[in-house]
Input
Amino acid sequence: MVFHGDYEVEFEIYETTPDNARHKLLGYMAGISADDAKTRWLESHEAQEERRHQINALHPRGSCS
Output
C-alpha cells in the first residue's frame, strides 16, 4: 500500500505584492507539487478570489539534497 504522505513535501506559501517586489510568508502546506500545495492552502484558508493569483507555493531553500 502506498500513502500520499510518502511523496508529499512541505512548501512555503507566499503572497506577492502587485509590483512583485516583496513577498510575505503566509505559512506552510504539504503537497505532492507546488500547485497541489497552493490549492490545499487556498481551500483551507478561503483566500479572496482577487488574491489567488498573488499566492504562490515555493519549495523551501536548502531542502533538496
